């Protein structure tokens, strides 16, 4: 490889975590071999608290974070660099729609996850992210957020695919292009502010913090929310389990999946 790569950015779920939603020893070792001053950035749809344990295990504690697919960017001190939210009026439309359907609504504001009850979907998220929600009745969400002057960085709806399909139609009709919809699975709908993505957030972050450009970055990803990042960095890598759309824009497609330590093997191949 002719270019000198100066910073690593990775997605979390489906990319750097193994079957147990954890960092494999092989992955931890590969990161440990990198120079101590080599910047490592995690970029995810997760909230900050759901990313900290991953940072710890790859030796990136105290590094900046790209959360909510770029909706919230934190610096090395945990202070907000960039913040993009959806309106409370938008959230209210979601809550009103849910009254006629059966799906979980979770809101994420800065580093707080709020939901109405610990149901099947909430339990799954707790197990996946290692974060506990604040339980608040749906009808109280708006008033509470108004009282603390906050708006959601992300709204996640989990449940019946047909109900989520209907919700998107209603939101597009009533709120136009205010928000971006991302379906990681047919039972998951993640809603965030319009015109944000990991690539834009990463470009701003590394330019302001490290005086680096996208061509200096090696990045890893697997899903639709990683496409622009993988396409725009200097060396974008798709893991073997990535969607075809990610593979098509990648500079390199690994023969190995996240369950087979794809990121660790690529670090050994291209950075050591």
UniProtKB/TrEMBL annotation:
GO MF, one example: magnesium ion binding
Highest taxon in the source lineage: Bacteria
Protein name per UniProt: Cof subfamily protein (Haloacid dehalogenase superfamily)/HAD superfamily hydrolase (TIGR01484 family)
Signal peptide (residue range): none
InterPro entries on file: Cof, HAD-like_sf, HAD-SF_hydro_IIB, HAD_sf
Pfam families for this protein: Hydrolase_3
Cellular component GO terms, alphabetical: cytosol
Gene3D superfamilies: 3.30.1240.10, HAD superfamily/HAD-like
């Amino acid at each position: 490889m002719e270019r000198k790569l100066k910073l690593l950015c990775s997605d979390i779920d489906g990319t750097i975590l193994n079957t147990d939603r954890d960092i494999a020893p092989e992955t931890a070792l590969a990161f440990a071999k990198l120079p101590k001053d080599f910047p490592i950035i995690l970029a995810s749809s997760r909230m900050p608290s759901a990313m900290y344990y991953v940072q710890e295990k790859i030796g990136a504690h105290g590094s900046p974070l790209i959360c909510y697919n770029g909706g919230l960017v934190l610096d090395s001190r945990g202070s907000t660099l960039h913040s993009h939210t959806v309106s409370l009026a938008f959230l209210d439309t979601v809550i009103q729609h849910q009254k006629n359907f059966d799906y979980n609504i979770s809101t994420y504001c800065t580093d707080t996850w709020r939901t109405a009850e610990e149901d099947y979907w909430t339990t799954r998220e707790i197990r996946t992210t290692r974060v506990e929600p604040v339980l608040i009745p749906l009808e109280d969400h708006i008033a509470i957020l108004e009282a603390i002057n906050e708006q959601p960085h992300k709204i996640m709806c989990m449940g019946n695919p047909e109900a989520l399909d209907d919700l998107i139609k209603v939101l597009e009709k009533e709120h136009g292009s205010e928000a971006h919809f991302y379906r990681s699975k047919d039972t998951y709908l993640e809603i965030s502010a319009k015109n944000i993505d990991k690539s834009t957030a990463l470009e701003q972050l590394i330019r302001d913090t490290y005086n680096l450009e996208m061509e200096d970055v090696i990045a890893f990803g697997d899903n639709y929310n990683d496409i622009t990042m993988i396409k725009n960095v200097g060396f974008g890598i798709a893991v073997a389990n990535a969607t075809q759309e990610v593979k098509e824009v990648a500079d390199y497609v690994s023969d190995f999946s996240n369950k087979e330590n794809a990121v660790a093997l690529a670090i050994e191949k291209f950075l050591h």
